[in-house]
Amino acid sequence: MAEMRGAMQAAVEQGADMVELRLDTILAPFNASHDLPSLLRLSPLPAMVSFRPRWAGGLYDGDEHQRLQALWLAAELGARYVDVEFEVAPNFLANLKKRICKIMVSYHSCNKSLTAEELGDLAAKMQNMGADVIKFVSAAEKITDVAPMFRLHSLSNIPSILLATGERGQISQLLSPKYGGFLTMGSLDSCQELFPSQPTLSRLTKVFQTFHVNENTKVFGLISCPVSHSIGPIIHNAAFAEVNYNGIYVPFLVDDLSEFFKVYNGFNFSGFSIGIPYKADALKFCDEVDVSSQAIGAVNTIVRRKCDGKLIGYNTDCEAAISAIEDGLAEQQNTKTNVLQDKLFVLIGSGGAGKAIAFGAKQRGARVVVTDYFYERAEELANAVGGKALRLDMLDDFCPESGMILANACPVGMHPNVDRSPIKKKALKHYSLVFDAIYNPATTKLLREAAECGAAVVGGLEMFIRQATAQFELFTGNHAPEKQMRQLISSLHKH
Ligand SMILES: O=C1C[C@@](O)(C(=O)O)C[C@@H](O)[C@@H]1O
After folding, report:
1. For 121-152, how does the pLDDT look when each residue is reduced to its tens digit (9 = 90+)?
2. Which one in 162, 222, 307, 343 has a CA-CA gap of 20 to 30 Å to 229?
3. Same domain for 171 and 147
4. What is the pTM of this model?
5. Which of 230, 234, 276 to mutate to test the pocket of ligand 1 (most atoms within 8 A of CB)?
6. Could you say which of 83, 135, 142, 372 is catalytic?
7. What is the CATH number of the domain that holds 64?
8. Count of the separate structural domains present in the chain
9. Domain Shikimate dehydrogenase substrate binding N-terminal, which positions (predicted)?
10. Domain that holds residue 261
11. How far lies 348's CA from each of 345, 351, 400, in Å?
């Protein structure tokens, strides 16, 4: 009880509009007639009371009649909302003495997502029962399971709350204010373990700034799998706020690209970043692709053209990585012109980022050597850029000349496997500059060892910021607030 009072205070301090009092989370002994009046009296915000039984995903497995009695009491004591499960709502409403509070009828599908038909059918039944607000909590098996929930927000003529659980369901809360959802659910940091399926209130307000999301907000996001490692949401949302652009940038954890683009095909979805492992595949879903992305064979940016809704693909990785490497070399060599010309440029990894880097290096006149865990892929990319392929097991002994450039574009060494490097330390002495496309961690084992061997090093954050500012300009048509974006990145790095 004391913790719940503290949590209510924290919620008000962090800017919540309402608190949900989940009575089932209170450890016994909980005596409704003794404890509820003071809880409700002390609540600094309008309260919505729920008492979730185990069969609906809650923690309570005691007597059902006692549970309903607590909810009847909450209704009489002036809770703003009482949340009752669909299955017991008819009984609850029939025996409610005075209807002074609003009734939320909720439906819980903990292990399975609900189809559009199921949602529509249940919503109509809830409304017929006399619900003031309808609420659904269901598992999102795929990110596209959230789309019918967005539609229900628009179709429902009474307020609706739709929470899709799991990482794939997170957009249900981030975008709920856009679709007219009654409220966005967020957990307090201190309650995160109890409600892992909800974003935290601090992330909602600080990163996604959901208080500013409205029906005109344009939706952008990163399509990737995994996606949670990305700092994109932190950087892009802050940049939108900086230039007063009405946009939100969200993580799209996508398993099936084709289905994603089919379902989220409206004007609301204005642009996408493309991350691992989709940069090459995403090209197929673009209606048009700019010339260099076509040559590279990968896109990391897709923008929906305003006049006709067509998806236009770009690659901002290429210029970002190559210009970062060039600046590193220029600083080391104290010269500015053609620093990559004729250099032997060894690239590890021939996925989407690797393709962009190989293409850029070749364009700048470097001699490109590609190595990959899958030799055939290395060969394919090497042929495309007029370079040579190298077997990965030869990399550690590869030294046709000194002063080579090494670029890593494979995920070895990325969080959480930070103790790994794609190349032996002893081989690094042959390189004058080493670049790593990985930005998490900012300094990978590869870069640490390269610096110890005396090479100049360029980290993935430099590529990240450059590709992100170019992407921001394609997304919004505005200049990116680069200084603020850089400051934010360095403050993240310090923490
Ligand atoms: O490679 C990256 C990184 C990224 O996938 C991210 O993690 O935010 C975003 C992409 O635009 C970019 O090309």
Report:
1. 999 999 999 999 999 999 999 999 999 999 99
2. 162
3. yes
4. 0.95
5. 230
6. 135
7. 3.20.20.70
8. 3
9. 222-302
10. 220-315
11. 10, 10, 17
